[in-house]
Specification:
By secondary structure, the protein is mainly alpha-helical. It has 8 helices and 5 strands, in the order E-E-H-H-H-H-H-H-H-E-E-E-H. It has 2 domains: 108 residues, Orthogonal Bundle (DNA polymerase, domain 1), CATH 1.10.150; 88 residues, Orthogonal Bundle (hpI Integrase, Chain A). The N terminus is likely disordered.
Length: 216
Amino acid sequence: MVAERVEEAAVGEGVKADEVVQEFEAYLRFERDLSPHTVRAYLGDVAELLAYVGGRLADVDVDALRGWLAAQHDAGKARATLARRSACVRTFTAFCHRRGWLESDPGLLLGTAKAPRPLPAVLDQEQARRVLDVASEGEPKELRDQALLELLYATGIRVSELCGLDVDDVDRERRVVRVLGKGRKERSVPFGGPAMRALDRWCVNGRPLWVRAGSG
């Protein structure tokens, strides 16, 4: 158990390090309902933090937190790891403050370390052209798929937003599509000629056959 890794040194008025870790574990599991993986990671982080301050919770202040995270950085820990440990200690110090083990919450003074969020891979121009330039035999499903791909490429809307569109959401005269996004916020997104032509082929040649065939 992670708590066993922490020496039973006094960390406050009559509170032992292993007791602190055990109560924090119960809080994470039963009150926060975190995943077992996250609980294990947080407990390991707290054990290391308490070892860093010699097992004395009273010595956990903002300088100690910054020093501990700086040591992690100097040891070559990944930014994602540092971000998790920063989140962990803020959760831990807030928990200890509520329990009355810390007079104040030093985690509130700690800056937020953010994990890197790499940009998603995108198609280059030639790859996009090959995706969109798919030979069609005029089958309703093919016409529908081409219209969806053209509209997705032309507008950059989310796939979930695309799936929620109806025929009435398309303004053909203005060449805009009405999109209901996050928070049910509505916006109008323009699109160009290729998407309009693909939509026309679907609406005129594909959708009527699709409906008559009972496909929806």
